[in-house]
Amino acid sequence: MPDLPQYKSCERNSRSIIGRILNPDCQKMPGLIREMPRTWQKQGKVRGIALSKKRFQFVFDHEHDLLEVLEKGVHTFNDWTLAIDRWVEKPPEDYLQFIPLWVQIRNLPVNYYLKEAITALGEKIGAVKVVAFDPDKPQVQDYVRIRTIRCLRTTTKSKVVNLPEEALQMVLFNYERIRKRCYECQRLNHEKDICPLRIGIGGCCSEE
After folding, report:
1. Taking all residues of the chain, what is their mean pLDDT, rounded to a whole number?
2. Are 11-86 and 98-199 the same fold in CATH?
3. Which of the listed CATH numbers 1.10.287, 3.90.70, 3.30.70, 3.30.450 matches domain 98-199?
4. Integer Cα distance of 98 and 83 in angstroms
5. Are residues 169 and 122 in contact, defined by beta-carbon separation less than 8 angstroms?
6. How far is CA 36 from CA 12, 43, 80, 135, in A?
7. Looking only at Cα atoms, what is the longest distance across the chain?
8. 196 burial via Cβ count (<10 Å: 0-12, 13-18, 19+)
9. 82 class by beta-carbon count within 10 Å (0-12 exposed, 13-18 middle, 19+ buried)
10. pLDDT digits (tens, 9 = 90+) for 132-183
11. How confident is the model over 104-131, as a mean pLDDT?
């Protein structure tokens, strides 16, 4: 292929997102290409392209529409999660393997309602980017929220935390906008009825 600008679509791609279907059995590509512009309320402003059976691209007419979609965080189609990120010419090895999302943390030990402690707990499940908690303001909900970059392998529902006082505390995690998952292994790429752990065919299937 000639290494000339007219043979590349970098300018168009710079206004696009690349995505990956996580559960092909429940997420069919033709329906996704048709429905996502409507879900985003961007009909006529974005064009979808099926790149493979699992990967897709949406090219936007305007940068602000692209940014608005990315800022929504978690995206779903047919109630199952999608992996979506902005197009890059040379994607890293972990491209489309992580998603940004808000997580609610419940059952915090009373002595650990501090940003530092909440951050440490949040890092049990992913890289913490934001802690939406102010110790000097009223806390009206029974949870605190963090924004994290989360690996797509599993959605950990709880962790037993060893406290300095030699006590154990079960901390609970709820993932906002995550709808369906396998309730056998908590992965996002298959239903419980066909979970490899449930039907006894070995370890859970890979992400790709």
Report:
1. 88
2. yes
3. 3.30.70
4. 7
5. no
6. 19, 9, 13, 39
7. 66
8. middle
9. buried
10. 999 899 989 999 999 988 777 677 888 898 888 768 889 999 999 888 888 7
11. 91
Domains of the chain by residue range: 11-86, 98-199
Neighbours of 26 (CB within 10 A): 15
Q: What is the mean pLDDT of residues 6-25?
A: 88
Q: How far apart are the first and last CA of the chain?
A: 28
- Burial pattern 106-141, b for ≥16 Cβ within 10 A else e, equals eebeeebeeeebbbebbeebbebeebebeeeeeeee
| Cα atoms found within 13 Å of the Cα of residue 102, Cβ hemisphere only | 12
pLDDT in tens, 119-129: 999 998 889 99
CATH number of 11-86: 3.30.70.330
Name the one residue in this structure whose structure tokens are 């070995």: 202
